[in-house]
Amino acid sequence: MRKKHPEHVNLERWLVSYADFITLLFAFFVIMYAISQADLSKFQKVSQGLKQAFASGPVGMIDLGGTGGGTTANPFDVTERSTGRVIDLPAGKTNTAGEPDPEIADIKERLEEAISLEVGATELSEKLEMQYDSQGLVVRIATKDFFSPGSIEVQPDLRPILDRIARIIFKTKRIIRIEGHIDDAEVNTPGFASGWELSTARAAWVAKYWIKKFDVNPALIGVAGYSSFHPLTQKKDAYSRSKNRRVEVIVLNNRYETK
């Protein structure tokens, strides 16, 4: 009877498992890299949209419109902000116009980056809202307690936000319109004949602050006040009223032309 030879043992089978492990490890790092490159602003926008939906009712009722108004007969004219398209912006930001001027779009991107550095990306939607309209870019400074009740001065700890905005918008020759707003409890503030005087004084304070600190050409700036007639919210609690005490900065499509 022939003697059987012992089976040959394959000593390289471990290479198969090793190759599988390396492949899985490579796939893991590819996925991690892809996640790290995801657009944070889109996640923030979705998050804010959900918050608004649960706070105000059905999704179809989410308000994507802007505020502000008034009419004049100069380059600072305000036109309606009721129609347009929505663009990808961080949470709390909406767009109400067609394709913006490329320079205006660049201003928006730089403002977004600058304010994120000042307040942090996670708090951006609570500090700043932006929208395009037929005038240009509307920058709504919606920080809680931006103004104390009855005061025309921006709180000192929030002025760095104004500084970052100024360093960007005044690098161009765009005309800047500053709109002031008050809450309904400030209408009879002592020292001001009406809410229009108080709201205009807030816009004027911001204008003078920028002119003094950044040596801005006053011809680039216009101011207006809308009293309490364009609130962000109709709620009467202290937090909501503090949000209505605000300024809106409009970077107009109009350029300043020297004569």
Number of domains: 1
Q: What is the topology, as strand order, of the major beta sheet?
A: 1-2-5-3-4
Distance between the termini: 116 Å
Largest sheet: 5 strands, mixed
Q: CATH class, anyone?
A: Alpha Beta
Give the overall form: elongated
Instruction: List the helices and strands in order.
Output: HHHHEEHEHEHE
What do the pLDDT scores average to? 76
CATH topology: 60s Ribosomal Protein L30, Chain: A
Figure out the total of helices.
Answer: 7
How large is the share of residues in beta strands?
5-15%
The CATH superfamily label reads OmpA-like domain
Structural class: alpha+beta
Question: Which spans have pLDDT < 50 for at least 5 consecutive residues?
Answer: 56-73, 79-96
Helix content: 25-40%
Query: How large, in whole angstroms, is the Cα Rg?
Result: 27 Å
The total of beta strands comes to: 5
Secondary-structure arrangement, i.e. CATH architecture: 2-Layer Sandwich
What does this protein structure show overall?
The N and C termini lie far apart (116 Å). With 259 residues, the protein is an alpha+beta fold. The protein has one domain (63-255): 2-Layer Sandwich (60s Ribosomal Protein L30, Chain: A). It has a five-stranded mixed β-sheet with strand order 1-2-5-3-4. The model is unreliable at 56-73 and 79-96 (pLDDT under 50). The protein has seven helices and five strands, in the order H-H-H-H-E-E-H-E-H-E-H-E. Helices cover 39% and strands 13% of the residues.
